[in-house]
C-alpha cells in the first residue's frame, strides 16, 4: 500500500522500502522530538514569568492527559481514514501546519510580555491564558504529527520494522541534541525566542513537507474496513481493553519503565545540585556573580545534569540504536528487551551513591533502556498482529501503548509529590522508588513476556 519507486510492492509479504527512502520518511520524528525538548526549554520559563509555581506545576498535567486522549484517537482514526491523500499524511500535514502557526504566535508572546510591564492585571491575565492555550494547542498538534509519522514509517518499512524504528529513534535523539546544542551555544532559549521558534519551524517544514509531497499512499476503500466499534475519542479505553495478552504485558512493563525513568528526569537538576554537589538552592537562580560557594555548587550540579550528562546520554543512545537491529536479529527482541532493562536498575545505586562520575555513568547507561523500549513498540505490535496480517488495528494499539508513557508520567507526578511532602528536599527517595519500579518491569518481562521477534 505504501512504497517508494525503488521498491515496488510485490505479491506476498510486503518488502521494506529502500534505506534512503526510509531516511526521508523517518525525518519528521526529529522535528517532533525537537518540539517536546523545546517545550519546557522555551515555554517553561515563559510560564514561570506569568504564573505562580503551583499553577505551572498544574499545567504540566496537560502533556500526559493530552497524550492519553489524542494519540490513540489519531491512531485509530487514521487506521480507518479513507481520504484520497492517504491514511497518515493528512494528519501529518494539518498537524504540522497547526504546530507552525502555534510556534509563530508563541514567538510573539515574550514581546507582548516585555511591552506590558505596566499593563493592567486583566491584560496580563489574557497573555497568560494565551500562553496556556498555545501550550495545549501545541500538545495536540505535535501528538497528531508524531503518531501519524510513526505509523507511516511502519507502513513503508515492510519487513524491516526494527531497522525503521531504529532510524526513527536516531532522528529522535538528533532532535534532542539540536535543542541541547542551541541552548549550550546561545544560552537559555528565552533570550532568543524568535530565533529558537524559527529553528523549530524550519525543521518542521523541511522534514514533514518532503514526506507529504513524495511518499505515495494508496487510499483505503470504505468496503475494506469493518464497522466502527467505538467512538474515536474513547480509543484510549478501547485500545487498552482490547490489547492482546502479550501487548498488555508489554504495556504494563512500559508503564513501570517510564515511571522509573521519569523519577530521575523529573528531579535531575535538584538531585545533582542538592544531593550530589551538596549545594544550596535558595537564591541560586538570582545570585549572578555574587553566588556563595553552596549556591555555585548547586548551579554546577544543575548544569551538569542538563548539559554534559544529557549530551552523553544522547550520544551513547545514538551509538546503541545503530546496533539494535543486529542485536534483535541475533538474540531476539525478548532477550534484548530483558537485558536492556537492567541499566535502569542502576537508579537504585544512583539514589545511594553520591559520587559525581559514578552518578553520571549510571544516568548515561539508562539510555540503553529507553532507546530499546521505544524502538520496539511498533515491531512488537506487528509481531503480535502478524499471524493474521491484520494491520487495521496498528494505529489503535500504537496509540494505546503510547498512553503507557503518559500514565507513567501521571503516576510519577503523584507519587513524587507525596514522597517529597514527607521527605522535604531529599530527591534521592523518588529516584530510589523509580529504580525499584524499574526492577518490577524487568520481572514482568522475564515472567510473562513471550513474543518471538528475531528479524531486522
Description:
With 456 residues, this protein is mainly α. The chain folds into two domains: 203 residues, Up-down Bundle (Growth Hormone, Chain: A), CATH 1.20.1250.20; 223 residues, Growth Hormone, Chain: A. It has 20 helices and two strands. Helix 10 packs parallel to helix 19. The longest helix has 37 residues. The protein is globular, with a radius of gyration of 22 Å. The chain starts with a strand and ends in an 8-residue tail after the last helix. It comes from Saprolegnia parasitica (strain CBS 223.65).
CATH fold annotation of the largest domain: Growth Hormone, Chain: A
Ranges where pLDDT stays below 50 over 5 or more residues in a row are: 1-13
Task: Report, as a whole number of angstroms, the end-to-end distance.
Answer: 20 Å
- Counting copies of identical and different chains, the oligomeric state is single chain
Helix content: over 70%
Order of helices and strands: EHHHHHHHHEHHHHHHHHHHHH
Q: What amount of the residues lies in strands?
A: under 5%
Give the rounded overall mean pLDDT.
86
**If strands are numbered along the chain, what order do they take across the biggest sheet?**
1-2
CATH architecture of the largest domain: Up-down Bundle
CATH secondary-structure class of the largest domain? Mainly Alpha
The largest sheet is: 2 strands, antiparallel
Overall SS class: mainly alpha
Number of domains: 2
Amino acid at each position: 500500500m505504501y512504497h517508494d519507486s525503488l521498491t515496488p510492492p510485490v505479491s506476498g509479504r510486503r518488502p521494506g522500502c529502500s534505506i534512503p527512502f526510509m531516511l526521508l520518511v523517518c525525518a519528521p520524528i526529529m522535528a517532533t522530538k525537537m518540539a517536546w525538548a523545546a517545550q519546557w526549554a522555551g515555554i517553561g520559563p515563559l510560564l514561570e514569568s506569568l504564573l505562580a509555581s503551583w499553577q505551572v506545576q498544574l499545567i504540566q498535567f496537560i502533556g500526559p492527559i493530552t497524550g492519553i486522549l489524542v494519540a490513540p484517537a489519531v491512531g485509530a482514526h487514521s487506521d480507518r481514514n479513507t481520504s484520497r491523500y492517504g491514511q497518515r499524511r493528512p494528519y501529518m500535514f494539518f498537524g504540522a501546519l497547526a504546530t507552525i502557526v502555534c510556534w509563530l504566535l508563541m514567538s510573539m508572546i515574550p514581546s507582548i510580555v516585555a511591552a506590558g510591564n505596566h499593563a493592567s492585571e486583566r491584560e496580563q491575565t489574557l497573555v497568560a491564558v494565551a500562553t496556556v492555550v498555545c501550550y495545549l494547542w501545541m500538545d495536540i498538534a505535535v501528538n497528531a504529527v508524531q503518531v501519524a509519522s510513526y505509523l507511516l514509517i511502519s507502513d513503508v518499512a515492510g519487513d524491516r520494522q526494527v531497522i525503521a524504528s531504529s532510524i526513527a529513534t536516531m532522528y529522535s535523539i538528533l532532535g534532542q541534541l539540536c535543542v541541547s546544542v542551541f541552548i549550550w551555544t546561545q544560552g537559555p532559549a528565552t533570550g532568543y525566542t524568535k530565533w529558537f521558534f524559527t529553528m523549530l519551524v524550519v525543521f518542521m517544514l523541511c522534514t514533514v513537507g518532503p514526506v507529504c509531497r513524495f511518499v505515495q499512499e494508496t487510499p483505503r476503500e470504505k468496503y475494506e474496513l469493518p464497522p466502527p466499534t467505538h467512538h474515536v475519542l474513547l480509543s484510549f479505553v478501547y485500545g487498552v481493553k482490547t490489547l492482546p495478552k502479550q501487548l498488555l504485558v508489554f504495556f504494563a512493563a512500559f508503564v513501570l519503565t517510564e515511571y522509573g525513568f521519569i523519577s530521575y528526569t523529573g528531579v535531575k537538576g535538584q538531585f545533582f545540585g542538592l544531593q550530589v554537589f551538596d549545594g544550596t538552592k535558595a537564591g541560586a537562580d538570582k545570585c549572578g556573580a555574587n553566588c556563595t560557594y553552596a549556591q555555585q555548587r548547586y548551579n554546577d550540579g544543575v548544569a551538569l545534569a542538563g548539559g554534559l550528562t544529557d549530551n552523553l546520554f544522547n550520544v551513547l543512545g545514538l551509538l546503541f540504536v545503530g546496533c539494535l537491529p543486529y542485536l534483535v536479529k541475533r538474540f531476539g527482541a525478548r532477550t534484548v528487551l530483558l537485558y536492556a532493562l537492567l541499566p535502569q536498575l542502576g537508579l537504585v545505586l544512583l539514589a545511594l551513591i553520591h559520587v559525581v562520575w559514578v552518578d553520571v555513568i549510571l544516568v548515561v547507561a539508562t539510555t540503553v533502556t529507553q532507546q530499546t523500549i521505544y524502538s520496539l513498540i511498533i515491531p512488537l505490535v506487528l509481531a503480535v498482529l502478524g499471524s493474521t496480517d491484520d494491520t487495521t488495528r496498528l494505529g489503535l494499539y500504537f496509540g494505546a501503548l503510547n498512553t503507557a508513557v503518559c500514565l507513567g508520567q501521571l503516576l510519577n507526578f503523584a507519587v513524587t509529590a507525596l514522597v517529597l511532602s514527607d521527605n522535604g528536599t531529599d530527591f534521592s527517595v523518588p529516584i530510589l522508588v523509580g529504580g525499584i519500579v524499574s526492577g518490577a518491569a524487568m520481572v514482568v518481562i522475564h515472567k510473562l513476556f513471550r513474543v518471538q521477534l528475531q528479524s531486522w
